[in-house]
Amino acid sequence: MSLRPHVDFHQGTVRLFGLSARFVEKALTDVPLVWDEREDCYRADAMHADAIRQGLEHSLAGRFDWRVGRDAGAAEFRSLAVNDLRQVTLRGDQQQAVKAFEDGGRRGLVVMPTGTGKTVVAIELMIRCQCSTLVVVPVRDLMYQWHAKILEATGIDAGLIGDGVHRVSPISVTTYDSAAIHMPRIGDRFQMIVFDEVHHLAGPWRSDAARMSIAAIRLGLTATLPGDDQRTERLQQLVGPTLYQQSIAEASGKSLADYSVHRIAVRLTDDEQQRYRDYSRQIQTFVYQQREFDPQFKWDDTYALSAATKQEPDRARDAVIAMRAFRLKRQIEEHADAKLRMLEDLFRLHCDESVIVFTGSNVMARKISTRFLVPCLLSHCGKKERRQWLQGFAEGRYRVLVANRVLDEGVDLPEVKTAIVLGGLSSQRQAVQRLGRVLRKGTGGRRAKLYEVVVEDTREVTRSRDRRRNEAYRQKR
Amino acid sequence: MIRSEHSIVEYDFQRMIVRPDRLHRGTDADYLPTAKQMLRIYRDGIGSARQTLHGRIETCLNRLPGCPPRRIAAFCKLLDDQSEYHSDRKAALQLRRQVFDFAADRHPIVEYREGIFDNEMHQVRSELAETVGRPWPEIEADLFSDVLELQRLESFETSLTPAQLLSAYNVAQTQAALYRATRVRVDASDDFKTIVRHAKLAGLMHRIDLVSSAKHPRYRFIFDGPQTALRQSTRYGVRFATLADKLLALKGWHLTAEILGPRKQRFRMELSPADGLTSSLTAPDAFDSSLEAEVDAAWQKTPVDGWIWQRESQLLVRGQSVMTPDFSLYNQQRNLLVYVEVIGFWTPEYLEEKSRRLKEFASVPPTDSRPVETTRWLLIVAKQQERDLRQRFADLQLPIIGFDKHTKPQSWIDAIDE
Fold first, then answer.
1. I need a surface site. Which of A107, A440, B56, B374 has the fewest CB within 10 A?
2. Domain shared by A239 and A113, yes or no
3. Which positions fall inside the Helicase ATP-binding domain (chain A) (predicted)?
4. What pLDDT digit, counting tens, does each position of A361-413 carry?
5. Interface of B with A in 46-85 (CB under 8 A)
6. Which residues of chain B are within 8 Å of residue A395 when distances are taken between CB atoms?
7. Has residue B24 been placed in a domain?
8. B343 in a domain, yes or no?
9. CB distance A334 to A364 below 8 Å
10. Which of residues 146-205 of B touch A (CB under 8 A)?
11. Whole-number mean pLDDT of chain A?
12. DSSP assignment of B176-223, as one string?
């Protein structure tokens, strides 16, 4: 072991060897370091690497070895030339976002509605920072989309980590899941990290992607910050404070197209209604019986109860039956015949336009695809297939594209002015993201339309009502 | 292995312990004929879609009282793991392209012809069938045949018996309970080398303590990962699960896992050979080399009085590096422990690595802070290589014995005392 203190990167953490407790307490006060007796070293999350380096430079004035990572000495990972091949001028709001990020110490969140050019802001910052950068995105489609945009803007053929590819380059794009898996090995390679749709980072597993990276420059992009304070706080710890925020209402009609939301109620057939009522009654009876037994019982407890076959076999059996009824009830809502009939009417109404249909399940998406013989974009589609449908849709060859959750976020769709939501979550985020898909301001300034088809007298009405709580959904009628 | 969403555990909040779901011979006897049925469903199900097979398994298990959905899903996963499904993505994509391109100019396809909308569904389907050259029901069935749940079973060639399937379920649930583990402790009196090797392969960090005498060594291993020093992390859970499966093939161990339970409370899970779980692996080989086997046989034939001869019974630890000498010799009267290393291969890489490790470990006191003067080393090499290896390891200044079938173990003791 060297007598000089040294710091290295170890599986998503940094280890500090050869430093006394007194020195650490004095010089690295703000860094959460922990003594690790397994290796006689101090240890911290890699995300504190920059603070550690600054603290050591200040106190030890170069009398330490910085061995962070295999590429610590490789010049191309410290700084690199990122050319600017773009032919665009940033809009006012985009310039404001760039400035806010730079003024805010290059660590923080930029909140802008979908379609307002968050990618443009990020690429501008990448060009300004001129350093190794990792872009983290939620889905594979976005990974390829970012790859194409980086290539177009800078001429750099970025590395890809995910979807069966593992090509790490100084500029790379990856998905959240791949980042969380691979960060213990690649977390020391990038000076800058961009989290697209940063709200995905808040979960405990995925947040490792931020913790295990040494990147000092951290940008988080999103259209919607998490609803609860705890998650927002976690994002701020991992990435930085909110440095710029623009609401969807502010952007409407300016950077985004003007839009209207139409709700259409459809009814179940007599047969569907009968089955729906039967299942509802089964569930109600089950909950009633459980409350007789335990007044605190909630429907949410059913899943856990279903597994208690050893302790409470009778209740567990009832829970299993109730859950099956619940699943069948959801299927009736989701696959109601009337939805397909309404969809046909809406296709007739918008027969000359490009329409995107959002469903609540992959099964429904395939059902629509098979019924109307239109492409559907699902998570199983490979890169080639996705590109094929998206391209055909952009060229107007295919009038309709059906998707479940693949297109909820980020993937660019050119000038779609009509979207139909046939089901989905009660989440406001999903609602706003789906709205964002049809709000890109194109030429002609045509008004965008979003239809929401809801089955009357079912839980779909409640979910739709929950979605409407969002400001963007509420104000537009 | 099954997925974490298939895991069923019982949390005992009084004793703060976790019990993974297990099927027992007595109370769950009904599962044995059901397991037979399940295997038959898969064996007879060649050509059926995955979702159809899963539906049949569900029906089969639903007949048993109180079978939770997670158990059904776990069995489906275990059976799928033994299966090969057909997925011709290229052909399915080709069919989709044909179908959607054909229909593109006919949008919207309406149920009944009306006004300007004259592309009637049935008509379009029959024209499509003619163009593709296959009947519509076949097109409909194959349009998404590459989607996971619609893939068809191609082969199910497992030798699993119904009892083995149930045993695999018990092992899988035990492993799944470990996905939520933050740290694992293994107390072992045997097979240390294999335990350490599997932990290394799983990418785990360790702390090792000797918990009993040199005569009957017993070690305590604590396995976790770098992040463990910073927070309670379940990040290494899958690695613990992998390690547990390997342990099942060994003897003389007891595992205690710290499990993160509801509301981040800490629970405990115990596992040992007494649980009766069986591994898919076989027990480790007896010896690493034939020379090692011959050396052992020579000692067994003419042992030296006062000395205890044990195989791989000592662990030498230096930080995250571990070395297990091939044998140890212990003399209780003299309180002398001798680490015996047999050099049984002669490739340059092997010898270089051996030399490096001996340099690292022969110069430091062992884990249990035993005084240096109570430990010695002895290197045993094949007689025909003796001269070369004496030169190669000369700088280590350790006694070296050339071994052939005439060498008596007393000469080894003499070499130590020289």
1. B374
2. yes
3. 99-243
4. 889 999 999 999 999 988 777 778 888 898 899 898 999 999 877 665 556 66
5. 62, 65-71
6. none
7. no
8. yes
9. yes
10. 146-148, 203, 205
11. 84
12. HHGGGEEEEEEEESS-HHHHHHHHHHTT-EEEEEE-S-SSS--EEEEE
**CA–CA distance, B416 with B312 (Å, rounded to integer):** 19
Is the CB of B106 less than 8 angstroms away from the CB of A373? yes
Query: Is A143 inside a domain boundary?
Result: yes
Q: For residue B336, which amino acid is it?
A: L
B96 to chain A: which residues are within 8 Å by CB?
Answer: 375, 385
pLDDT 10s digits, A332-356: 988 888 899 999 999 999 988 889 8
Token pair of A62 as six digits:
């170069």
Token pair 């968050």 is found at A118
Does A274 lie in the same domain as A219?
no
Omega of the bond leading into B284 within 30 degrees of 0 (cis): no
- Position A112 pLDDT exceeds 50: yes
Question: Which structural domain, as residue segments, surrounds residue A463?
Answer: 259-268+336-474
For residue A449, CA distances in Å to A24, A374, A464 come to 60, 20, 16
Q: What is the mean pLDDT of each run of 10 residues along chain B (418 residues)?
A: 92 94 91 96 96 96 87 96 92 95 93 85 95 94 92 91 94 97 95 90 91 80 95 94 92 95 93 88 69 90 91 85 90 89 83 86 66 82 86 86 88 86
CATH number for A240? 3.40.50.300
Domain identity same for B189 and B276:
yes
Cβ atoms of residues A104 and A241 within 8 Å: yes
At A386, list the tokens.
């996705």
Give the minimum alpha-carbon distance from B407 to chain A in angstroms, rounded to a whole number: 41
Tell me which residue of B212, B418, B413, B211 sits closest to B327, measured CA to CA: B413
Number of domains in chain A: 4
Contact status, residue A259 vs residue A476, Cβ threshold 8 Å: yes
Provide the 8-state DSSP code for A163. Answer: T
Across the interface, whether the CB atoms of A344 and B110 are under 8 A apart is answered yes
Share of chain A above pLDDT 90, in %: 43
**Contact A11/B225, CB-based, under 8 Å?**
yes
| Residue A1 falls inside a structural domain | no
Do A22 and A121 lie in one domain? The reply is: no
A24 and A128 together in one domain: no
Q: What band does A275 get if pLDDT is binned at 50, 70 and 90? A: very high
Helix/strand/coil for B15: coil
Q: A265: helix, coil or strand? A: strand
| A242 lies in the same domain as A320 | no
Closest Cβ–Cβ partner in A34, A311, A378 for B230: A34
Domain region containing B377: 290-417
A29/A414 Cα distance (integer angstroms): 51
Domain boundary residue among B284, B311, B338?
B284
Task: Give residues 224 to 283 of B whose Cβ lies within 8 Å of A.
Answer: 225-227, 229-230, 235
pLDDT at A477 (0 to 100): 46
**Same domain as B205, residue B303:** no
Q: Which spans in A37-169 are helix H?
A: 49-60, 75-78, 92-103, 118-129, 140-154
Q: What phi and psi, each to the nearest 5 degrees, are found at residue A367?
A: -60, -45
Q: Which residue has the higher pLDDT, A102 or B344?
A: A102
B-chain residues near A341 (CB < 8 A) = 111
Please report whether residue B404 resides in a domain: yes
Residue A245 phi, psi (nearest 5): -140, 130
Q: Which stretch of A24-33, A89-98, B201-210, B276-285 has the lowest confidence by average pLDDT?
A: B276-285
> A469 pLDDT exceeds 70?
no
Residue A206 domain-assigned?
A: yes
CB contacts, 8 Å: B260 with chain A: none
If asked whether residues A120 and A228 sit together in one domain, one would say yes
Crossing angle for the helix pair A383-394 and A140-154, to the nearest 10 degrees: 70
- Measure the CA angle with vertex B356, ends B351 and B358; round to 5°: 90
In a domain, B396, yes or no: yes
